[in-house]
Design brief:
387 residues; alpha/beta; Aspartate Aminotransferase, domain 2; Aspartate Aminotransferase, domain 1; 2 domains; seven-stranded mixed sheet; five-stranded mixed sheet; 14 strands; binds pyridoxal-5'-phosphate; transferase; pyridoxal phosphate
Amino acid sequence: MDLSYILNELGENRATYFNAVAPPIIQTSNFACRTIDEMRYMLQHEAEVDFYTRGNNPTVDMLEKKLAALEGTEHAIAFGSGIAAVSAAVLSQVKAGDHVVCIKKPYTWTNKLMRYFLPRYGVEVTMVDGSDAQNFAQASKENTVLYYLESPNSFTFELQDIAQVTAIARERNICTIIDNSFASPLYQNPAAMGVDLVVHSATKYIGGHSDVMGGIICGSRERINRIFSAEFMTLGAVLSPHDAWLLLRGLRTLPLRMDRIAKTTRQVVAYLQQKEQVAEILWPFLPEHPQYYLARKQMRNNTGQFTIRLNTDTIKEVDRFCDSLQHFLMAASWGGHESLIYPAAASYKEGNYRSSLPFTLIRFYIGLEDPEYLIKDLEQAFLKMKG
Ligand SMILES: *Cc1c(COP(=O)(O)O)cnc(C)c1O
């Protein structure tokens, strides 16, 4: 399927909606049945029909069709946030007495789900270094039902060899889930590498404008329908039609934004490589990175995140560098038009070290600004760093 077709036409049914060029926002909670027989049909086929917006809604449905096509899966289901999609995907695979193998250092709230939430319900979780696929095999037990991946992962952008991990999973009949948010649905398609459920925080690249939250799970029709009638309908983390519309609007420009972000990121990284104030750049797209060949093998292009380690041993200098930036915003989320930093030092208070990450690490997200504009901002902040 052509990418342009997916983003501009697929699922939109323009003829049904007055041939409107922009998709309609079907802002309704309810859909009426004309006869009791129709209602009987609706109740029996709730996963496929528009009956109640907590289940299905035409605007949300357009988004789901497009994301399933982008990820190359049969079906997809949208949620009100990325973490709702992560939680529903994970909960759909486990029950008390089961065992999960998860990568170390996933996204913060995925980590909470794995370390605190699942054990409360009798599910045991082992966290492994995902950069060696054999670690998944070694950690597996008779009751292992799920491998959870995030590639690249949060903050340190380490990769897992997706095809190797899914091969190990298939031998043991273990389900695999991946959080694909950092790669975007354009630059990595894990279902083609054997992953069962692909999750995105749509809040990030898919929305692309820092003005909406959403999540998505892509997978086989059978798996998605099972999630629909259990976790989706009972937990109720529904995506509103208006938010689905904002995500559809974001999708229209996804290839343009990703292409621009990829190029600018390469330019900013090249600049940072020459700075003595930068001790290290954590980014698998540098040829000297140990996972460079894996990045080239399983991703189509780089995206906009990397982390630098500042060349300093005082948190004061980290603070001064961060506070001196005038155009980079300091914020948690990413994927919008604006470039951001997220300093690990923000989790450090005097005498109270809350982070497992060194305070010298700063995560970057590169947005849509001109590279020269960003580099100028970094240059003046480096000059102020030493005080
Ligand atoms: C932001 C994020 C999430 C959570 O998504 P929300 O939309 O904020 O709920 C999950 N995974 C990754 C990798 C993220 O960056």
